[in-house]
Design a protein that fits this description.
Two copies of one chain form a homodimer. The first copy, chain A, contains four helices and no strands. The first copy, chain A, is mostly helical. Chains A, B: One of its GO terms (cellular component) is membrane.
Amino acid sequence: MEDIIGTTAGVLTSVAMVPQLLKVIKEKNVEDISGLMLGVLITGLSLWVWYGFMKGEWPIILSNSFAILVNLILAFCVFKFKHKN
Amino acid sequence: MEDIIGTTAGVLTSVAMVPQLLKVIKEKNVEDISGLMLGVLITGLSLWVWYGFMKGEWPIILSNSFAILVNLILAFCVFKFKHKN
């Protein structure tokens, strides 16, 4: 039961991130994204994955790994597009 | 040890949300925020809180509750500012 709740929670919070990522990729507009905050966020998400491994909880590991992937792509976009204008 | 990792993770991912919220409140620009996605996100975060209660894990409960609060404020801003222009 916990696994169903956790997996559903992970899928919903993961799905909610995707449109924002697609928008950034499509519009190549990254002026509003703070590189520092992305760094803080990716560090926090990495600790969540570590926490998930310590507790052996797959919903936490998978959803935070997905969030790290999304934010690494965002960080790459910021690096690539930041000075295009 | 798990609690230290989880609490640090929660603090970092929570801190990373605040500048975006302050920016929206300050600039009153919510055109880029999807109400549907906020709904999906808040639903997902609520399930995480439920999951945290089932597992008795305070870092999960507290950090996702904070995220719900941030996103409810965002939802309020979207409702309030969406049609100002």
